[in-house]
Design goal:
Elements (H helix, E strand, L loop, with lengths): L5 H17 L27 E6 H6 L17 E4 L9 E4 L10 E2 L2 E4 L2 E2 L6 E2 L9 E8 L12 E7 L7 E9 L3 E12 L2 E12 L8 E14 L3 E15 L6 H6 L6 H5 L3 E18 L2 E17 L16 E21 L2 E21 L2 E2 L2 E2 L5 E23 L2 E18 L11 E19 L2 E12 L3 H4 L15 E13 L7 E14 L2 E7 L2 E6 L3 E13 L4 E14 L3 E2 L11 E2 L11 E9 L4 E11 L2 E2 L7 E2 L2 E14 L2 E10 L7 E4 L9 E3 L4 E11 L1
Parallel strand pairs: 5-9
Antiparallel strand pairs: 1-8, 2-3, 4-7, 5-6, 8-9, 10-11, 10-41, 11-12, 12-13, 13-14, 14-15, 15-16, 16-17, 17-18, 18-21, 19-20, 21-22, 22-23, 23-24, 24-25, 25-26, 26-29, 27-28, 29-30, 30-33, 31-32, 33-34, 34-37, 35-36, 37-38, 38-41, 39-40
Length: 709
């Protein structure tokens, strides 16, 4: 598939989608869906922004392995979730190119689970604690209004757990699949008087597609909803997760071409691995003060412990300022968000205002040890780093929605974000001086948009916003020379523009179809990029200006009863606009300067996904899906790239509905053609180990059952 021309693709694709939608009959009626992208519930069609919703049941019903979210997100335009086949490393998630450079955690994209931040105040997020068995829906917001969520809001992903309703239900599922996959989970839900509940727990293990990539994960999730007196409600949330995983590391071009299932020899030499343990609790209280005013208060807290063994040669660690080859992070975090919503009028037209204050904090104990004792490698040795870090953010915000006319809607908001970093060095030994310090970043982040409704079937909108992205603690962790945090890093700042159009079939029409299209342009100053990535140390610097622009298309058509066809396409042109100096090993810096015009590594110019499914409530079900991803540059110089690829998947299943029992059995095959490709890349990896191979042809067999009392 050749890359699409930006201008020629727009009218041709829109015309094709519109004609296809208008020629379909016999669609089924779907339940209405609302989203909270603007902090008030709205139908996605009416939001003046690019926002998509993914149903949790759909994420589970097609027989997917449920290793992580990347299996379910390919149909969301503008979003790229990479298949790393490495449970020791976090999911690679990017929105319109934001977050593509991340090698540790999710950054550049704000994450929330049941309204609780899964992104720390420094901008780094984690997704390992999301319980896929109890997900009710997932929302993704892209574009200018993302900035109203604060630091590192290139996009926003929100996951919401199912709400317990109806009579008690007990269910569970088991799955087995290729490469030693084993998964089992159990879930109880329902309502007892004023309280709804969802309780779930599960365990997953895999030997992994590659050598030295076995992993185990155990997790549990709880959601309790109380309807209180006086138009009030209280939601209590708790979850826990533990992960133990081996790390096969990335592969060089030669290793990837000849032995994609292998691990780099350094991985087995040092027994590279990672363990994670996290516990979190939260509460959300809402009170309807009167017909026009509502209060919402959210509190949360948690702790996360991570230990990671890296493959750093013993000789490299001999340097007096080297932090060692074992990382230990103990983090305690928490925060609150208090919000007031009022409905009034302006010029006798409806006005809704949301104002609030968000406070988040994280305390981190960061330690480093040598990854050897004597001649024994891959074990925790002498202490080489010990510091106490703290990051806090305080963000007041206000948003408003006004309808000056039934067909026009104006949205505007502003958020002031202030992020403070502090570090206290406890390891002052010899040449390792006292590297304590602090830095504060702040920015005022406005956004505004206008939406016009020519008819019930059409929406047209434009929006603009300004965002910023601070360095994370992991990006501040090392300097290119010496020890201590790299407080010279500056936050990047972005100006975002977007225009879009949405169409849907008429209410009550025999067919059901809809499509959306959006074009966007983002200009960023002081982009944070990798400066060096060797010896287990990644350092970062600011690299001037970058530009991201593109096109996103999505369509959903129900051609007949129980049939659903979906399509998404993303064109992303993400490039450096300024040249910048490159200092480091020849692997990273074949020339002293990265030229302007190079593509941002980790981004693909074209992404396409299609799916066709037959999903009656009982009986046989089946579906097929296809995905195309263009080539992805692996470094700033674009000297190598992961090749483009096409993958095909299919599933078939049967659903029994017997009295109070519901039983479903599904068989799924992915990568049917057994295509060899890189599921993800490690951007600017200093040893040239850029490539993380995706799995070959693989299968999953799953069985689920539930009983309604």
């Amino acid at each position: 598939m050749k890359p699409f021309s930006f201008l020629s693709a727009v009218p041709a694709t829109l015309l094709g989608l519109a004609c296809a939608a208008q020629g379909v009959v016999g669609a089924q009626t779907l339940a209405p869906v609302t989203v909270t992208a603007t902090r008030t519930e709205q139908v996605p069609f009416d939001v003046p922004a690019s926002v998509d919703v993914l149903d949790g049941e759909r994420m589970r019903s097609d027989g997917r392995a449920q290793l992580n979210l990347s299996e379910s997100l390919s149909l969301l335009p503008g979003l790229l979730a990479r298949d790393r086949q490495n449970q020791a490393q976090d999911l690679q998630l990017s929105v319109r190119g934001f977050g593509a450079r991340s090698t540790f955690g999710v950054r550049g994209v704000r994450l929330y689970v049941d309204g609780i931040p899964a992104t720390m105040p420094d901008g780094q997020g984690q997704l390992s604690h999301i319980d896929l068995a109890s997900v009710g829906r997932l929302e993704v917001l892209r574009g200018p209004f993302s900035v109203l969520y604060g630091n590192s809001s290139g996009g926003v992903m929100q996951v919401f757990t199912e709400e317990g309703q109806g009579s008690p239900m007990l269910g569970g599922s088991v799955a087995t699949g290729s490469y030693g996959l084993r998964r089992a989970d159990v879930k109880a839900s329902g309502a007892a008087g004023p309280m709804g509940y969802v309780l779930s727990a599960g365990r997953l293990s895999t030997q992994g597609f590659r050598a030295h990539s076995a992993a185990e994960r155990e997790g549990a999730n709880m959601r309790l909803d109380w309807a209180l007196a006086g138009d009030s409600s209280l939601t209590l949330l708790a979850n826990s997760v533990k992960v133990e995983a081996l790390d096969p590391l990335g592969l060089s071009r030669a290793q990837f071409d000849t032995a994609p299932r292998s691990a780099d020899p350094a991985a087995t030499t040092f027994n590279t691995r990672k363990t994670v343990s996290q516990q979190q609790i939260g509460a959300v209280y809402e009170r309807k003060v009167d017909a026009d005013n509502q209060l919402r208060l959210m509190l949360y807290g948690g702790e996360r412990a991570t230990t990671q063994f890296q493959a750093i040669p013993v000789a490299v660690q001999a340097g007096p300022q080297h932090p060692g080859g074992v990382i230990g992070l103990d983090r305690n975090y928490g925060g609150l968000d208090v919000r007031w919503t009022t409905r009034t009028t302006l010029a006798q037209r409806p006005l809704e205002v949301v104002g609030g204050l968000a406070y988040d904090s994280m305390n981190e104990r960061r330690r480093g040890w040598q990854n050897f004792r004597g001649a024994t490698l891959g074990v925790q040795g002498a202490l080489r780093r010990d510091e106490d870090n703290r990051v806090t953010s305080l963000d007041p915000y206000v948003q408003a929605t006004w309808k000056p006319d039934p067909r026009w809607t104006l949205n505007a908001g502003v958020r002031h974000s202030r992020v403070n970093f502090e570090s206290a060095d406890n390891f002052v030994v010899g040449a390792n001086g006292n590297d304590s310090g602090s830095v504060t970043y702040s920015a005022t982040l406005p956004a505004a948009g206008v939406s016009f409704a020519p008819s019930e079937q059409w929406r047209v909108y434009v929006a603009a916003g300004r965002g910023f992205e601070t360095p994370t603690f992991n990006e501040l962790a090392y300097r290119a020379a010496g020890s201590g945090l790299n407080f010279a890093l500056r936050p990047s700042r972005s100006d975002n523009l977007e225009a879009g159009v949405k169409w849907r079939s008429a209410q009550g029409a025999a067919m059901r179809a809809e499509w959306t299209a959006a074009v966007f342009h983002t200009a960023t100053q002081d982009e944070i990029v990798t400066q060096s990535n060797t010896g287990g140390r990644s350092t970062f610097r600011n690299a001037g200006a970058t530009r991201r622009r593109g096109l996103e298309l999505a369509a959903s058509v129900a051609p007949a009863r129980h049939w659903l066809a979906q399509f998404s396409y993303t064109l992303l042109d993400a490039r450096y606009r300024d040249a910048f100096a490159c200092v480091g090993a020849a692997t990273l810096c074949p020339a002293p300067q990265v030229p302007a015009g190079k593509r941002l590594p980790g981004t693909a110019r074209n992404a396409l996904a299609m799916e066709l499914g037959w999903r009656p409530p009982t009986g046989w079900r089946s579906g097929v899906d296809a995905r195309y991803l263009g080539k992805v540059a692996v470094n700033d110089f674009n000297t190598d790239a992961a090749a483009s690829f096409v993958t095909l998947g299919a599933h078939v299943g049967y659903v029994f509905d017997l009295a109070r029992w519901n039983v479903a059995a599904t068989a799924r095959v992915d990568n049917i053609a057994d295509r060899k490709y890189a599921g993800s890349v490690i951007v600017n990896e200093g040893n040239g180990r850029y490539f993380e191979p995706a799995a070959g042809r693989n299968y999953v067999l799953s069985l689920s059952a539930s009983y309604r009392f």
